[in-house]
Every structure is written in C-alpha cells, then in structure tokens.
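Extended Data, record Charged multivesicular body protein 1b
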Amino acid sequence: EHLFNLKFAAKELNRNSKKCDKEEKAEKAKIKKAIQKGNMEVARIHAENAIRQKNQAINFLRMSARVDAVAARVQTAVTMGKVTKSMAGVVKSMDATLKSMNLEKISALMDKFEHQFETLDVQTQQMEDTMSNTTTLTTPQNQVDMLLQEMADEAGLDLNMELPQGQTDSVGTSVASAEQ
C-alpha cells in the first residue's frame, strides 16, 4: 500500500511538472504579446511568472525523482524480506534433514536452495537496475555538464549564452522570497 502511494505521488509530481512547463510556455507567449504592444512592465511581470513556473517544474521533477528512488528502495526492502524468510525456512529444513542424513532429502533441499538463490540474484539485479535508472541524485555532475554541452552543440547554441545564471537566479530568488 505504501509502495503504491509512493509511486502514485511520483506520477503526480511528474504531472505537476508538465503542467508548470505548459504554464511557462503560455507566459512566454504573453511576454511576446506585451512586448509587441510596447507594454514593458506587463512583459516583465510575465517574465517573472515564466521563470517561477520553470523553477517550479524543475523542483517538481526533482522531487519526483527522489520519491521514485525511495519507492525503489522500499521495493528492495520488501523483496529482501521475502527472500530472507524463504532462506530461513530452507535453513531450518536443511538442519532437520542433516540430522536425519537422508541424502535424497539433502539433494532436494540443496536444489531448492540453489533455485531460491538464483531467484534472489535475478531480483537483486532487477532492483539494482531500477535503482540506477531512478536515482538521479547519484549522477556525476561532470557527465550531466558534458551532456548539456553536447546537446547545445547539436542545436548550434552557445550553452553559456542560453543559460544566463545571474539574471535567472536574481529574479527567481526575488519571486521565491515574495511568495514566502
């Protein structure tokens, strides 16, 4: 139940991020209209709104990734708990069988143990794959920067020109502090 709620929350955060992206685009369209009409004050207000929407979209996406990572960790814990219980049962059966020294039972139990161990390997690999796909927090920053630069090069853009940091931060901070 908690796992379902976590996954649902992650999807909801993703939807909110997309909604903010759409609202940002709408604000940008309003900026163009206001500039065409020569109303710079209204254009500035729409620009602040667009930046705020963009920051909210990024925050929603970041929170969604974190919730996804938590959900994957919970899934791993649940799976490991089930495997541990199964292994405990096998060990108890092995103890009883070893006391009786019935080779057929020992062989059957060892086969069962190997099967469960293989299942554990498969489940562990699946969870590791899930974790590596959902945990964005452990992505090396230099790889992220290299990908951003590569995408900018493909688009024929100058990355430093397209991502003004000083302006965005000051407007975003003033809007965020005003909201608080």
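Summary. The chain has a mean pLDDT of 77.
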